[in-house]
Design brief:
The protein has 337 residues and is an alpha+beta fold. It is built from ten helices and eight strands. The protein folds into two domains: 151 residues, no CATH class; 159 residues, no CATH class. A four-stranded antiparallel sheet has the order 1-2-3-4. Strand 5 and strand 6 form a beta hairpin.
Length: 337
């Protein structure tokens, strides 16, 4: 999730503990600790662009790292804030642990993938029920955190938690409806999907990107779900990556070949050769519009590269303003245009 939402989660859950008169202090310490795991973005390499991808949402997001991460935060925040505010180290540590602990679980609710059980497993958990930015999560919670702190009343904290429970429950329900709609769309094509995933589009839980795979291809569609009939936007398909077919010139022992497998792991296997740039491998899970196969990131290979040379990593954003306008029309739509 975005840093604001991560901080808000750390703050509101920290506010459940301690004295009511300290709700503002709990919010500040919980918010800082709630954002701290994303300091893993500092782990990067000039020569290996995939290192940053491997270590983002890695050990710092693991459930097993929470007590350590909370301790590191409290060792910093106690002398800076806790001691000055007359708090005990134990109280500071408790708020730090709570704030730090919310981070990985919240990230697990998105589609990006979070290693919650590292070092026991390198599985990237992605429950796909919330967008990485969703104002209906962050804004109400922030408002109630501030009210709780200003009025020294914990009832606003409980209001925030009730809102989150309701919103995430609704999102889970719509996610399941999007999955069901995806199977219906696949059946119309005569397909029996091997896997089926639904991911919320940007900043909402109404329009979903549905991805399924057959033996040879990936199919992408968009669907608007509610408690009425779903609305579909048929998307596109793309062949699964086949190294022998797509990159016959690639040395399978080269660093570039190893980097493709690292990128495959990062992308949950959802990778393909770019239709327009044949030396490019793309992550098809993300696009500005949910029915498109128009990647936001991927890797570029170089045919004459040395055996030990890494791939190049690219990101593309396109015309985000135009895409948001189209997405807003999809959210409002009662039928596809």
């Amino acid at each position: 999730m975005d840093p604001v939402t991560q901080g808000a989660f750390g703050a509101v859950f920290a506010q459940t503990q301690g004295r009511s008169k300290d709700l503002a202090k709990a919010a500040v310490i919980g918010a800082i600790a709630g954002m701290a795991p994303d300091l893993d973005v500092l782990i990067r390499s000039d020569s290996d662009p995939l290192l940053a991808l491997e270590f983002h949402r890695h050990f710092s997001h693991s459930l097993l790292f929470i007590p350590i991460g909370g301790l590191l935060c409290s060792l910093l925040l106690y002398p800076l804030l806790g001691k000055r505010w007359g708090l005990s180290f134990l109280q500071t540590y408790l708020w730090c642990v709570i704030g730090f602990g919310t981070h990985g679980l919240l990230d697990g609710c998105t589609s990006y993938g979070t290693q919650l059980l590292w070092p026991l497993s390198d599985h990237r958990f992605a429950w796909d029920i919330i967008s990485i930015i969703d104002p209906l999560v962050s804004i109400p919670v922030l408002a109630l955190i501030i009210l709780a702190a200003r009025r020294k009343a914990r009832k606003y904290v409980y209001f925030a938690l009730a809102w989150l429970a309701m919103y995430f429950g609704l999102s889970y329900t719509l996610h399941e409806r999007a999955i069901e709609a995806g199977y219906q769309q696949a059946a119309l094509r005569g397909h029996t999907p091997i896997t089926m995933e639904a991911k919320p589009s940007f900043a909402n839980i109404v329009v979903w990107k549905v991805i399924y795979q057959t033996e040879k291809d990936y199919y992408v569609d968009a669907v608007k779900v509610s408690f009425a009939e779903p609305v579909y936007w048929q998307g596109d398909s793309i062949p699964k990556l086949d190294l022998d077919r797509d990159f016959p010139w690639l040395d399978k022992q080269s660093q570039q070949a190893k980097d493709i497998e690292r990128f495959r792991w990062f992308s949950g296997g959802y990778i393909s050769q770019d239709k327009h740039k044949p030396d490019r491998v793309i992550d098809i899970r993300y696009s500005l519009l949910p029915q498109e196969i128009n990647p936001l990131w991927g890797i570029d290979l170089t045919r004459d590269a040395a055996a030990d040379k890494h791939i190049e990593y690219f990101t593309e954003r396109g015309d985000s303003r135009e895409a948001i306008g189209k997405l807003w029309k999809m959210i409002q739509a009662t039928k596809p245009e």
